Amino acid sequence: MNSSKELFTIEGKRKYLTQEEQARFLAAAAQLDRGEVRTLCMSVAYTGCRISEALQLTVARVDLSAKALTFQTLKQRGKVKYRSVPAPDELMEALELVHKVRKIQKSKGGGDAALLWSWGRTQATKHICAVMTAAGIDGSHASPKGLRHGFGVRMAQKTRNPRLIQKWLGHTSLDTTAIYMDLVGEEERAEAINAW
Predict the structure, then answer these.
(1) CA distance 172 to 76
(2) What H or E segment, with its residue span, contains residue 105?
(3) Domains of the chain
(4) pLDDT for 99-154, tens place per residue?
């Protein structure tokens, strides 16, 4: 289960976005007229959340002070579990600007029932895939799952802390998280070979 092959298709093609591809994806999203699509793209790219988790995000679970988003973790076999994922200033500012987070949080109910995005999973996926196309990214990694995997790979490269990555991605088992740690080892070897 913890083989890095899970980050590759049967044909050996990558299922995750590289850092350069994520930068192109975010640049393409920044050009969009629709702020809601832009914030969805940013949220999935910067937090590694599942698309369904993003679509369940309410205004009340945007913590502007702690600069974090709190997702209801899916795939927990009937358990209700939440996780807080740190988010960059750029994302927090975009969420505030586009979704009027502060204003809604101060209103009656504090945004408990106010979803950030009103789309279903199919429409949200179409939006992300359209931005991938605009960024010139195609293949099996040009998807919301590719953004999630890319987040996992980058976090493994930066933190080298599997427990933290497990928490941020909402994995039940550390074995699932280990695929990102295994891949980092392979990428380090590839970089060494290129240096020689």
Answers:
(1) 7
(2) helix 101-106
(3) 4-195 (1.10.443.10)
(4) 999 999 999 888 899 999 999 999 999 999 999 999 999 998 999 999 999 999 99
